[in-house]
Amino acid sequence: MTAANDVPMARPRAGRDRVVGRTLTYVAATVLALFILVPIYLIAVSAFTPRESAFDFPRSVIPTQVSTDTILFFLNASGVIDAFWRSVIVAIITLGLSLLIGAPAGYAIARYAFRGREGYRLVILATRAFPIVILAIPLAVTYRLWGIDDTVIGVALMHTALALPFTVLITSSVFISVPRELEEAAQTLGCNPLQAFLRVSMPLALPGLAAAAIFTWVLSWNDVFAAVILTLRNPTLPAKILTALTQSPIYFQFAAGFVMLVPSLVVIFFIRKYLLGLWGRVVK
Amino acid sequence: MAEIQIERITKLFKGTRAVDDVSLTIGDGEFMVLLGPSGCGKTTLLRSIAGLEQIDGGRIVIGGRDVTALPPRKRDIAMVFQSYAVFPHMTVFENIAFGLRMHRATKADTDRQVREAAELLHIENLLDRFPAETSGGQRQRIAVARALAMQPQVLLMDEPLSNLDALLRLEARAELKRLLKEIGSTTIYVTHDQVEAMSMGDRVAVMRTGKLVQVADPLTIYDGPVDRFVGGFIGNPPMNFLPVLVERRDGAAVAVLADSGEIRVEGDEALGQRVGPMVLGIRAENVQIVGSDESAALRGRVLVVEPLGSHNLVTLALGSEHLKAITRPDERLEPDQDVGLKIDPGRVRWLDTERGVAFDAEDVAGPGAGRGALTDEERDAAAG
Amino acid sequence: MTTRLGWAPYALLLPSALFLAVFFATPMVQAFGLALQQPDGSIGFASVQRMLGDASFSGALLTTLALVVLVIPVQFVLAMSMALVINARLKGQGMWLYVYALPLGISELAAGIVWVSIFTQSGWLNSILMGLGVTDRPITWQSAETPFLLIACIVIAEAWRATSIIMIILVAGLQSIPREFMEAADVYGATNWQKIRRVVLPMLRPSLQVALILRTILAFQVFATVIALAGRGLYVLAGEAQRWATDIDNDNVAAAYAGLILLMSLISTVLFLVLLPTREEHQA
Fold it and tell me: Cβ(A272)–Cβ(A164) under 8 Å?
């Protein structure tokens, strides 16, 4: 065979290699997927095991008895439902605040070339890297001064601070993806800048904004550290569970873990399309 | 009255003058084309007239009103964007109706005007569709219909045909010209395609590096370009430019082209009594090729013959210069063939060597014409 | 661009800038102030010294460092595998992405509890091992008396929980590698492994750098996972910070811990920026 002297020849068994390679990839994919899914399955089984069987050992992976007894026990335990609702309220406030404050900033970054734009973006990027630890502790002190420690609004404000960088960056990339020419066309057709935004950009940005909203929700719902530091008698769900962890029976924990898990799974399902967009663009 | 007066508009972008002291008057109902290579400022100028760009100097008057400080929605203009900017989340009907609704037209009026505009552009059958369900050519027509539905005083168009494929562009061009003639609105049309400019405009304003180089009707621009840039930009193939030495013999001017011959010119007003080195401009269709045995003013050698169907494009070498000529398709010429060339002296443009500007530039393009002829580098090089 | 509202972008930016100034910048500065004070109000390094001299300090520092050093490589191998799987475009790609991204929505606490259910004495790991006949007695995985085993459990739990973020960043990076590079490598007969080493990894550098920096900063804050799996038997820096703030009621020492975490985050960031410089030539 004639071949350029310096180019190594393609391996003759390329065809078979590809099939083998492909199969191996499927195997690897499945193994990785099982690594993620099996623990979720197991905690679900644990959560649906009735209390009296909680200490049976060894347990079979396929449950013989399924009951909502443990979960109900968890939900009815003192303070749990209250903590649950507090988490919900905190998440809603965080969502609202961070979008209200962050979306205009994202729009400004997307649409205007103003002095300090790059600097502002860098600052926003930098804030993502700051440990929540170093924010929560001084804020706890400040909140006591202001009288809002141990309140839902206090936690929400902290969460908003954490979520704000993400909201700004995500909304800015969402608005960048809506061509400015559309707003300009609207302006030549009789809109002032605000109307052009509301009638043209907003509807088109809505899906991306929804993804940002959901992301913010997850951030707030899952936060443990700040919640523990900033609350005492009015904990959010993660804070409540954490403080009760060492003193509660193990089936309480399993039910708690499961209850915390399920909303997340549902939420990630809904925004899976946007995941790459969220992180791919945010990263830059 | 929709006359437009643009007075000494200047727009700066990061220190460079995107639009440099441009003044232009566009008559009521006139179709004015802004033509130039990319980066020349034509789109910036259009956007400034629309109110989408803030200008750094000058005044814009539309229909007798000074609109310089007004936002786009108050200028009574409509604009068609290069990307069409059709709203994806609205139906075609809602797109066309958008401007009318923003101006609080009644439902009946809106309905009527939308349908009229749609009929003009032959898209009545698309009204219930979403833009995603239409082709590029259809979206272009939606954009035009949306602008026309407003019945604006002034219509601004930013390269509306450049995103269409070649065949569609040809048809759309003719259709658009006919439509706009019928409607009769004052139109400013931006393009980088000189064929489009020539075929559509009542007048063409050629721009370069932010400055206005020449404003004239298409024929004048074609036959009487104000400088080398315009002559080279307009027409396909570009105008030929040859360095010649003009002498006076027996009361007539003789242009000597080194190693290739000379041309006798009598009574050329533009040339006047000038002598010395200058640039001779001649269009390819005004160069006649004859056999080498015939008496001809110039001699050259054929380099390349390109048969283009309706005519042949012949590239010739005259000494160290190249020249393009157009011949009938059946004329037989071979590379390396020696031929004679005749140039019609009445069709010659005379330009000065230093700046490449025609000697009658001021007559053709007005005082201060040809300011955009040389770039700063060229001017520096000429100054030495 | 709008023509006459030169102040518009700044107005849009103002709320977020203000909010971040109050809830981000100020606490940060205050944290340092707190760390350099004592509960009695005096200023000095006493709080820092107290942190350094505390019995659990060295353990917390070492454990945190150990976790960071162990978890990051594991996660990167996992994330890279997942990212390559996703990039291979197997059938049902959307499903694979969803599964691998599931842990994104799972909080540290829930993740910790999930793995408690597996590692606890009467948990799933032992059940499965006994069921398979590998052992006849339940093994204690989660005991503070076997810290190495315990740390291994935490590493696995953290790897399970926090790999998705890295995976997504890497997937985005992989997708931005022009296909021509991979195809050229194929034409020249590169094996898959060579392709990864010579083409993919170098072009993935910017993404790798970002992912490493972000993930390491987050890793220094490991908190609830440790508490779930080890109770208070194992110390980490964030856990100590929380303990001093809420249990011992000494915000100054807590702030000192927070400052330490920030310091380590900054050092690691600088290290990564220096050791893994991104080269712009890759875009050429």
Answer: no
Among C19, C110, C114, the residue with its CB nearest the CB of A164 is C19
> Which ranges constitute the DSSP H helices of chain C?
8-20, 26-35, 46-53, 57-87, 93-101, 108-119, 124-131, 147-175, 179-187, 192-195, 201-203, 205-219, 224-230, 237-242, 251-275
- State the CATH class of domain B4-228: alpha beta
User: Of 2.40.50.140, 3.90.420.10, 2.30.110.10, 2.40.128.190, which CATH number belongs to B229-383?
Assistant: 2.40.50.140
Residues of A in contact with B78 (CB under 8 A): 188-189
Q: Does A209 touch chain B (CB under 8 A)?
A: no
As beta bridge partners, residue B321 has B318
Taking CB atoms and an 8 Å cut-off, how many pairs form between chains A and B? Answer: 56
Nearest residue of B to residue C2 by CA position?
A: B52
Q: Which domain holds residue A215?
A: 77-283
The CATH number of domain C55-283 is 1.10.3720.10: yes
The domain limits of chain B are 4-228, 229-383
Q: Report d(CA A150, CA B44) in Å as an integer.
A: 57
Digit-coded pLDDT (tens) for B212-266: 999 999 999 999 999 999 999 999 899 999 999 988 888 778 888 877 888 888 7
Touching chains, B (3+ CB pairs < 8 A): A, C
Asked, for residue A254, whether it belongs to a domain, the answer is: yes
Please judge whether C251 and A132 are an interchain contact, meaning their C-beta atoms are less than 8 angstroms apart.
Answer: no
Does the distance separating the beta carbons of C102 and A40 come in below 8 Å? Answer: yes
What distance in Å separates residue A264's CA from the closest CA in chain C?
A: 5
pTM value is 0.78
Q: Which value does ipTM take for this structure?
A: 0.82
Residue A250 structure tokens: 């193990």
Q: Where are the domains of chain C?
A: 55-283
Domain assignment present for A150:
yes
Same domain, A20 and A139: no
Residues A217-235 pLDDT 10s: 888 999 999 999 888 888 9
